[in-house]
Amino acid sequence: MDSTQIIGLAAGILTACSLLPQVIKTFKEKKAEDVSLLMLLVLLAGLILWIVYGIKREDLPIIATNCFSVLVNVTMVILRIKYKQS
User: Fold this and answer.
1) Which residue ranges traverse the bilayer (predicted)?
2) Which of 2, 38, 53, 56 has the most crowded CB, counting CB atoms within 10 A?
3) Angle, CA 12 vertex, CA 7 and CA 17 arms, to 5°
């Protein structure tokens, strides 16, 4: 693995983890009215496109990190819907 791949993997991991603090906060507080559902849906669409791009390029770090991001994002969407009016 060369330095470019290491940088790409690190960037993907950090980006994938960026929503985790919000997921944890929402889960603990059981409140999500300030979280934009539209933003989450736009992000989800972008992540899916990144996965397609990674598949077409056969780039496992892009595929893996964005798949993780989709899981985190879907979790946040579920929490947003569940705790919307709490």
Assistant:
1) 6-24, 36-55, 61-81
2) 53
3) 130
CATH of domain 3-82: 1.20.1280.290
Question: Domain ranges in the chain?
Answer: 3-82
Determine how many CB atoms are found less than 10 A away from the CB of residue 26. 21
The full DSSP string for the chain is --HHHHHHHHHHHHHHHTTHHHHHHHHHHT--TTS-HHHHHHHHHHHHHHHHHHHHHT-HHHHHHHHHHHHHHHHHHHHHHHTTT-
In 3D, which of 16, 7, 27 has the Cα closest to residue 73? 16
- Distance, CA of 45 to CA of 84 (rounded, Å): 21
